[in-house]
Design a protein that fits this description.
Bound molecules: the ligand CSCCC(=O)C(=O)COP(=O)(O)O, magnesium ion
Enzyme class: hydrolase
Subcellular location: Cytoplasm; Nucleus
Oligomer: single chain
GO molecular function: acireductone synthase activity; magnesium ion binding
Family: Belongs to the HAD-like hydrolase superfamily. MasA/MtnC family.
Cofactor: Mg(2+)
Largest sheet: 6 strands, parallel
Strand content: under 5%
Strand order of the largest sheet: 3-2-1-4-5-6
Amino acid sequence: MANETNDISDIVKKCKILLLDIEGTTTSISFVKDKLFPYAEENVKSFLDSQWESEDVKNVVSALRKLALEDKENSVDGVVAIPGEDASKEDQIEGLVKSVKWQMSADRKAGPLKELQGLIWKQGYDKGDIKGHVYDDVSPALESWRASEGQKVYIYSSGSVQAQKLLFGQSSAGDLLKYIDGHFDTAVGAKQEQASYAAIAEKIGCKPEEVLFLTDIVKEAEAARASGIHSALVSREGNAALPPAAPFPVLYSLAQLAHPNKRKPQEQDEQPAKVLKTDVDADVKTSAESEVTPAPEAPAAAEAPQAEQPPTVPEPSPNTEAVPVVQIKEVVETKPAEEEPEKMEVDEAPAKDDVAPPENEKPIEKVETKVKEVTDIDEIATPVCDIELIIEESSDKTEMTETENKETKSSASVTEPKESAELKNGDKDAPIPEETPPTTIITEIKDITDEKEDIAEEMIDNVEPIVEEPAQDMEELQNVGEVLEKECDEILSKVQDVTNLDNIPIKPLLNTIAEETMDTDNMDSNDIVEGILDSEMEMEMKQTAEKEAQVAEKAAETEKAPESKAVTEEAKIEDKTEKPEVASTESKTVPPEEPTEKVAETKVTEEKVEESNVKETKAEESKPAVENDTKPEEVKIATKIETEVSSTPKAEDSKTKDVDTKVEEVKSAEEVATEEKKVEAEKSESEKKELAVEQITKEAEPAPVDTEKKVPEEAKPEEPKETKEAQVNGKATNGDAAIPNLNGDASKDDELSARLSMENGKEAVNGANGDSNKVDQGKKESAEVEVADIKVKTVAVDEPRNDPIEQPTEA
Ligand SMILES: CSCCC(=O)C(=O)COP(=O)(O)O
Ligand SMILES: [Mg+2]
């Protein structure tokens, strides 16, 4: 049975008769539809009018009238009646024109219609208005087919035989009738009828299986196959899409008909498989076509929709005979664009797609074949290290290929195979270079080059990150640099902050002041500072304890009220005057071994109160009592203070203020704990102390001389200025009240100096606490004194600060 295989090359081997359809196979459909049919329509009336009396016209008119009657009898839709012979010429012609147009609009393949069309087209061909279109691969294929002994070419078309002869006799490729052994039209039968093909084979005088029928219509191919004739479908641009599963080989060029037996055995043996395609090309004489085929119009296999590509073209077998089919097609497919100029000679209004194969019908097999070949050739195991080399090679190959391609095209035009040259030009003596580079190889090399370029690009993409790394490192380094710069700025800012006095930690400051204030070097300044801090903590604790004890003692005193009127009054005074006096009350219960600063301070008041009690005076009367009971020593101290103040150089005033400032700083911290008490007791205490100071001052006034004498003895200038100033400050308020609390180890001057120093702050207190020579007094005592002095200082500060000092001075 025919078509047992879809390998066109195998079929070709079995066939000697090539039976060809015209429209859609050798000739573009557009030429028929857009050129021939319109020409017939436009000229049918005039043709009938002018040729009405001709026998051909009479016969065709008679056939058309008969057909119309049959159609009417068969109730064919749209049938147009043709007036009888008895009708006027005009009426008959009018009816004929209408009938022809109707049939043509329906693309009827009726014999009478095709006859009339042929008659009309003949005028066009004769006038030179029409030239039959054939694809460029037609003539070479016919020539090649006919070149084999015993092989013939026949035409089977719905077009009339006359129309067929006109077309091929006056084709764009010249007179091709020399390659055609016979013509068949619908007179033998309809093209979709099996019997038609059987009749043709019979008429030809051959077996059906010796015939290969090429057509663009599947039903025609099926009818031919049914008759035992081999069939293949031809896909051309502009043809109707072929069904994807049509079980026929699909040709995109008649060049695929190249008979494998025609290859030269010598070249076949010498050439590798892919080169054998060159042999085939040469044998099929495709060089003449491929040489002028613009590459862009070469059918791109990848553009062909797979759904529209019937898988009827077998994949080329590894052997040399299977390959050429695809390769030949590629070469010949590139030709249609070349036909445009030629078609323009024939077609006044050529359609763009009447020559180019439809892109949607490119065989997928073509793509697969190319990929396979490239893969096999390249072996694709390209190492990364060869990237550049590959690129260069690819580039070179690309350039070479393009150059060679151009050269080949130009050279191929004059070096086409001998047979082709002879057939085309009739010049059998034309030189035929045997080493002409086949276009197929060029195409193949180009494919390989493209493939390598793709691979190289991929590899380059992989290499790119390596190239970008330095840039990234630079960015990172810049970022690190910026970070380091910021850190440096921060460090510098911190250093600047450190140098700012406002940011100096209090401890180092205290150390500095303590060192300056210390009378002796027995204690380390750090120890003093630590002691102050510890004392502060302890003082806070004691204050809390004193408050608790105060409450308890008050309760006890209340019970003992009858027994100690003075105590009661003292409590009254304390309650009315200042809260610290509550502490003073508590101080009575505090063991002497653990005196607190408040105890010391309170004792001043306490003593005053006690003295006033002795005189049985009340709180209001205590003031003069205090003044009266001021001990001579107190007077002495007060006097000394005044003397010191008066004798203090002005230059020292600033230092005094500085020390005072420092003291105030420390005081501020201490005030936090005692602020409430102080605020409440401020007024009363101030009043009392003012009274005491006034009293002392009054008493000291008469003895300025003594004071002056004592100054050099007790408060020598050798003492630190701060100490002197502190003494002044402290003396102004504290007076001798604190003196008894100080260990008597030190001289009074020293004690006074130390105590007064305490007013200047913790450092001063430390210095005093360092107390120089009374280390065994411990830190507690120093802290007590400190706080006491500070409290006194607070009073002084709250009041006009210079009062205690200026008053004596002014006095
Ligand atoms: C002979 S050229 C005009 C072709 C024509 O009229 C026609 O109907 C084509 O039919 P085909 O069988 O060649 O497809
Ligand atoms: Mg056709």
